[in-house]
Amino acid sequence: MYMLPPFLAYYGAATSNITLLQTAYDQVRLYRQKLQTSSDTKLWSHIIGGSYEDRLYWSTGNGWAAAGMMRVYATFNNLRDAGLYAKTEAWRNDLAEWVLEIANDAFTHQQLDTKLLPNYMLTDDTKRNYPDCSGTALIASAAYRLASLVPSYVPRLPMSTIAKSRIAIFSKYTNITTGAVGPVVDPMDWNAEKAFSGAKAEVGHVSPEGQALVLLLHAAWNSYSSAHSSTEI
């Protein structure tokens, strides 16, 4: 979701190819159709089918989906061909709504004590639902990108809740000396029963992926705050 649809969208934009643009949109639409497995939530299941099937709701996976959709949206939104831009209007509207779905549902699961999302949402299994900066940061970054590119969505997003997560990540969970972030899920094992602590900037303690996702959050927040005169935190 974060790689193929954005690539197709960008290649379609670069070559003014409506077929590639539609394929990018259709890939997102079909992923969503397949991975929204419950009528009780708009969150996406992690993996459907195959030997690695995982029908639970992994925060980082939902973050990849939301952030990938925002990359496709941004590409469509910056099409230079007026005709192609007009043809993608309905697709842009869908993408914005689908990112909103994930952001809104995910942040209903923000933990009151940590202000983070759990590694897996909608489960009481303590080996899976520990707090995680990676998924929290990625979903929050997608929400801030949506708010920046489509300001009319700001009232529909849980901005104050997202802000609590952002502030916690940078003030409480980031080591200002080493830059290490924790708690974060093991980037090589989403089923890991314990988060990396971020206590040391060493293998087994930090997640390079998590570090990158926190930077995406900072960049998205910077774009949002620069574009808005609002005092919203």
From TrEMBL:
Keyword match Hydrolase: yes
Keywords: Hydrolase
Recorded superkingdom: Eukaryota
UniProt GO molecular function: hydrolase activity
Single GO biological process annotation from the record: carbohydrate metabolic process
InterPro entries from the UniProt entry: 6-hairpin_glycosidase_sf, 6hp_glycosidase-like_sf, Glyco_hydro_88
A Pfam family that the UniProt record links to this protein: Glyco_hydro_88
PANTHER family: CELLULASE, EXPRESSED PROTEIN
Name this polypeptide is given: Uncharacterized protein
Gene source species: Puccinia graminis f. sp. tritici
